[in-house]
Amino acid sequence: MTNALSFNRRSTLSLLAGGAVAGLAGLPAEARSEDWAALGEDVKSEFQWAWRHYVERAWGRDEINPVSGTSRSFFIEGHDLGLSLVEALDTLWIMELDEEFQAGVDWVKANLDFDVDGYAQVFETNIRLVGGLLSAHLACGDPALLDKARDLADRLMKAFDASPHGLPYRYVNLKTGAVRDPETNLAEIGTYATEFGVLGQLTGDDRYYAAAKRAMKHALDMRSDLGLMAANLHAETGLFTSRNASIDVYADSFYEYLWDSWELFGDADMKRWAGECLGAMVAHQGKRYDGRLWFPMVDYETGAVTGTSQTVLGGYLAGLLGQAGMKAEGDDFLASYSAMQERYTIIPESIEVTTATPRGKRTGLRPEFADACLNLWQHDRDERYRALTAVHYRNMKATSKATYGYTSLADITTRPMTQGDNCPGYWWSEQMKYYFLMFAAPKRVDLSRLVLSTEANVLRGFVRD
Length: 465
Prior knowledge:
This protein is mostly helical. Helix content is about 50%, strand content about 10%. It has a single domain (about 5-460), classed as Glycosyltransferase (Alpha/alpha barrel).
């Protein structure tokens, strides 16, 4: 495997030579005079405004459709689990919207029941509901929230137990424990360690973290001589089912949780694996097109490029590289997305990296660019990252604000942009929290200790009265 530290010294020189880091240089004049506290208050006001519409039109439902004022289920059709409500809880608490927070907690305690005869996607259920309940519990200390998180995690554990390799199936029946869909991917087998680890700490039960780490280790043990993993694998055979190494679709949060497990639990194995994997990515996936750094899919054994698309999801990697000590590379990659934001106002959902053009017209209120900016900003408080995030926020506000909240977009190429009709649950947990943390200097978070899950649930760093 590549030694991450020695590689970092070499790669920094080569990436800087490419000149893309210069794309982040210099602070816009308007940023130097920005009233960050006022912008933070604006974020809070918009969040509260959208929340009121959710309460009025979709209370307890998974997601609101902000154009029509209707709602939809996310996990199990016809049986809502309060997804947006749970996702919003710790954001409400951080924003000191205490009345709204308590109303949400009361709904969870009175209505949220996971004894449902239906199949839920294990990965999504963990990052959204287990994580949301845990962060809300850490915020207020209510033991009922921890009890519900544990009940749900126990149901998800059936998906791990059913596999001979400890690789969770994609779906589990929340009531019966039956599983289905063994054809899975790195993200869906490797995005549990932070939530399961915190749950284990709070309950004194190490089964959860052990199961999460075992699944990750199985894939890591199959890395090629290049240090890369294929993105797709099978829960029953334990083998890769593709040859594509990906940093975004099918894989992204696997890599986040290696580093996060080191930060949260001091797990040296996870830190070593994170460094090795990130080093291999930069060495064998980082490619330049028109001077911009991208990380297209490559064959995990040969390093040959197998596809030239990059999704907006990949933006997280810029921040993760910064967290892991590869800040020059992180800045370099962020500059590629910054250029797309400047050119298209809203970063396209999928990008053809050879031409830096959109591969589609729709986008889903994506938070990854703001996520990366927050992680890089936490490193050195460089105002460039706040300035880029302020643009991201204002562009979202200008294009996605609808009658009853904020919505995804159906076409980013029209002027004005054509709105869709759905507010994804992660909007409540992710970008609005990122914006507020960066702009508002929140009293209830210690930024120096902050650790967020891939869904931006606060797993460390709350400051309680």
